[in-house]
Amino acid sequence: MQLHYVGVIQNDRRPGVELSTADAVKDHYGFFERTVVGEFMYMYAKTLAERTKPGQRIDIEEYERKCTFHAYARSEGICGVIATDLEYPKLAAHRLLNRVLDEFLTAHPKSASWGAGKLPMPQLQEYLTQYQDPHKADVLLRIQDELNETKITMHKNIENVLERGEKIDDLVAKSEGLSTQSKMFYQQAKKQNSCCILM
Prior knowledge:
This protein is an alpha+beta fold and 199 residues long. The chain has 6 helices and 5 strands, in the order E-E-H-H-E-E-E-H-H-H-H.
């Protein structure tokens, strides 16, 4: 699972303006692909941000580039966009989007300076590194993984108990069969012994 791009884009005017971004293109792509992939991600993120309505969440899979774009637009006129590989969990991506947008609005409240160029947000690069493995970074995903493992273990335990129960039922049936046979043997022996009484 990989996280390629995190960006905050002003989407309340056209064309959208990239306010703050971080990408890991040079970490995941070769030297000759970096420029093209970087431009593609910027263009796609900007287009997606412009088309995302306030309060809307969008996940678009781009199969040719083998990545998914996640977008979340806020009513303040900004949109967070994340580009991941196809396997990256959507829940983790949207949690990161919430966090990024909240921190961006805290650091840079809506003002006229938004359109003046990129605004500093060094946390984006940290998040890009931290969220490469979403299960380590996202507490809820980690708990969900632990719950899934516990559920699998419990299913195995229940299956084992049921198998033991079947074995116990077989033993009970065999012991009942032996008990019936021993009663029949006792009655047969009693009959046999009754014909020959010693005096």
